[in-house]
Amino acid sequence: MSGAPGEVPLSIALREELGDAIETARTVQGELTLRVKCEAVARVCATLRERHGFTRLVDLCGVDFPGRDPRFEIVYHLCDPAAGRRVRVKVTAGEETPVPSVTGVWRGAEWPEREVWDLFGVRFEGHPDLARLLLWDDFEGHPLRKDFPVEGTATSPSPGEGGGEGTGEGAGG
After folding, report:
1. Which of 46, 57, 86, 172 is surrounded by the most beta carbons within 10 Å?
2. pLDDT by residue (tens digit) across 89-130?
3. What pLDDT does residue 167 have?
4. Domains and CATH numbers, the chain
5. How far apart are CA 86 and CA 103, in angstroms?
6. Across-strand partners of 101?
7. DSSP state string for the chain
8. Model pTM?
9. Which burial class, exposed, middle or buried, applies to 151 when counting CB atoms under 10 A from its CB (0-12, 13-18, 19+)?
């Protein structure tokens, strides 16, 4: 299987190894971005780590596109420190579509996946402890969704986090 015009050797090798798990491969300003099938993300990440030296998960974050279906994009930034290479892996997920956890590939993915769950509401299948990380358990909603009210919501902090009822407007407000 040969690559499309302009593909780098890594993307060609990954297409040969993983077949249609790689939906697109694009290089912009020397940095490779792979769009992969959601259900294959853990397998793709494991291959990048074990066979291609991308031993570091630098960041894992969510992006909300409320007018798009599927609505969310999960972005993994990976690094091969020995060769000084970086790659970006992207998957899309709907509100009800869980994304396979990559905690089996990088233990350090546990908290970033919890952060994406907490702030966007994207679930990670196979995560060892998918619980709120930044907000209290009774908090309603996911504040980094673009449809979350800009003015915030009436909320109550967890016991021990100060008295009274908050308004979502920040300290003193």
Report:
1. 57
2. 999 999 899 999 999 999 999 999 999 999 999 999 999 999
3. 42
4. 9-125 (3.30.460.80), 138-173 (no CATH)
5. 19
6. none
7. -PPPTT--HHHHHHHHHHGGGEEEEEEETTEEEEEE-GGGHHHHHHHHHHHH---EEEEEEEEE-TTSSS-EEEEEEEEETTTTEEEEEEEEE-TT-PEEP-TTT-GGGHHHHHHHHHHH---EET-S----SSS-TT--S-TTSTTS-TT---B-PPTTS-SS-B-SS-TT-
8. 0.85
9. exposed
pLDDT confidence of residue 173: 36
Q: At 128, which amino acid appears?
A: P
pLDDT in tens, 29-58: 889 999 999 999 999 999 999 999 999 999
Query: Distance between CA atoms of 65 and 72, rounded to whole angstroms?
Result: 6
Question: Is residue 72's pLDDT more than 50?
Answer: yes
Query: What pLDDT is stored for residue 6 in this prediction?
Result: 55
Give CA–CA dist 173/159, Å, rounded.
Answer: 19
Residue (of 109, 92, 74) closest to 37 by Cα position: 92
Q: Across-strand partners of 64?
A: 72
